[in-house]
Design goal:
The chain is mainly beta. It contains 2 helices and 29 strands. The longest helix has 14 residues. It is globular and about 70 Å long. The termini are far apart.
């Protein structure tokens, strides 16, 4: 039976398609391996066009016209077959002291759920180490000595605690119980190590009531519950300052509204702004999904007296009548107050009659067209920040399904043009630099900048996992 197409339903489908990446109109292409620091060859990626960037200064991170970005390396990560990206954790990407990438991905790896650690040992060469099965939510970092560490909760039905594991002589061994007493599934965990050798785990848990938990180990594990007792969304943001202090950003309900909140370790929450909460329209602050990432990074603080500045990139709804979102940015000003501004707005390109008004007779057609923006990941050095943003231009062909003189819209075709752009602010202006274009949306994206300003990126497509280096060629 045909589907009644309202724009809200169409927008929800578009959001799902962006997240799930079901967009293929040609067979998968053979992936090739490029040598580091060489421009990717024809057919691999479309080189970005230079950005008109008048008055730009030299930047360590690529993007400005004086240092344009290009994909200088693209490799397939040979993970096990039947991969399915877990909605419970994003892949971890950690660079060791030799800036060799370690990728830890949790999800469905045949024959069951689990996680795999992939370490790049040379051009096109990845060494794989499987993590114990049954762990769909886990995260990874390296100890100061370079030993692999993993944090995660065991299978929900077994009521296992959340453990810190260490890889020793090819075997994963339990190292310590984080021990805040919750026996629940740990969603979207993040594990980071600070410059002083401390460990920080950030987990969204559900033990009857959802909680955000920060666990830190500077000799022994200590835990703190974040927020002020409201309802949380998935995909909160977590980072460390240069001084090793944990920083958090999350959406929490407060006085009946979704409130974007910033919180520092062992400090009270700071409420930045609020949006309507929980109704039929604009039920989520980031559009039609609760899984849109909230990107967080810190600059400054590298020297004594240098101020530490938080940077947040996020999606937020702009109208209860149109379920479109915008990419927005927030930072704390010199006086301590928060500054919030819009960066990029989603667009509905089709007329309101397409999808909103039911057809009246057989044979009617229209095209539901939109451009949406999704925050994917973030990189920063001591002075600059770059957000990686997915831009998806979608077209859904609608046909008519009529029965007993009642007509409804139904989908008859789908096409998309997906791009990834670096987005940042320079001298108060929004700057953009395209780094990826294709029919394959990138999802579950994680990026990290190395000491030379090169951006390492790992992501899943519909057909494989990819590793990219993005730099000034």
């Amino acid at each position: 039976m045909g589907t009644m197409w309202k724009w809200g339903m169409g927008a929800a489908l578009l959001g799902a398609l962006v997240g799930c990446g079901t967009t293929h109109s040609e067979p998968p292409r053979e992936q090739t391996v490029e040598e580091p620091d060489e421009q990717a060859g024809p057919g691999e990626v479309v080189p970005p066009e230079p950005v008109e960037d008048k008055g730009a200064t030299r930047s360590r991170l690529c993007g400005p016209s004086t240092s344009p970005c290009a994909v200088t390396l693209r490799e397939k990560i040979p993970l096990a077959p039947s991969e399915h990206v877990s909605s419970l954790s994003l892949p971890a990407l950690v660079l060791d002291k030799d800036e060799r990438p370690h990728v830890f991905a949790a999800g469905q790896f045949a024959p069951d759920f689990g996680a795999i650690l992939a370490v790049r040992s040379g051009p096109g060469q990845w060494d794989l180490q499987r993590f114990p099965s049954g762990w769909a939510g886990a995260s990874f970092t390296l100890s100061p000595e370079g030993r692999p560490l993993v944090v995660g909760a065991g299978p929900f039905e077994q009521g296992e605690p959340t453990w810190l594991w260490e890889l020793e002589s090819g075997t994963w061994r339990k190292k310590s119980d984080i021990g805040w007493g919750l026996r629940s599934w740990a969603h979207l965990p993040v594990l980071l190590g600070d410059a002083n050798g401390g460990l920080h785990a950030f987990l969204w848990t559900n033990d009857g009531t959802p909680d955000l938990v920060h666990a830190s180990n500077r000799g022994t594990w200590k835990t703190e519950m974040l927020g002020s007792g409201g309802r949380f969304l998935l995909q909160p943001g977590f980072t460390l300052s240069a001084r090793g202090q944990a920083q958090f950003a999350y959406w929490e309900t407060h006085e009946g509204r979704w409130t974007l909140t910033w919180q520092q370790e062992s400090s009270a929450p700071e409420r930045i702004f609020s949006l309507p909460c929980c109704g039929d329209s604009g039920g989520w602050p980031g559009g039609s999904t609760a899984y849109t990432p909230l990107l967080v990074a810190m600059t400054g603080g590298g020297s004594e007296g240098s101020p530490e500045v938080p940077h947040l990139f996020f999606s937020r709804t702009v109208s209860a009548d149109e379920p479109l979102s915008e990419l927005a940015y927030a930072t704390r000003g010199p006086g301590g107050g928060w500054e919030v501004r819009s960066l990029l707005q989603d667009e509905r390109l089709s007329p309101p009659s397409c999808g909103d008004i039911p057809p009246t007779h057989p044979g009617e057609t229209c095209e539901l067209e939109s451009i949406t923006h999704t925050p994917l990941s973030i990189v920063a050095d001591s002075q600059e920040v770059r957000a990686l943003v997915g831009r998806n231009h979608t077209r859904i062909q609608l046909g008519t399904n009529c029965r007993r003189n009642v007509c409804q819209w139904e989908s008859s075709g789908y096409a998309s043009d997906f791009r990834v752009e670096l987005v940042w602010l320079e001298a108060g202006e929004v700057r953009r630099s395209e780094i990826w274009r294709g029919e394959e949306p990138l999802r579950a994206v994680t990026a990290q900048a190395d000491s030379r300003g090169k951006i390492h990126l790992v992501a899943a497509t519909d057909i494989d996992w990819v590793y990219l280096i993005i730099a000034n060629p």
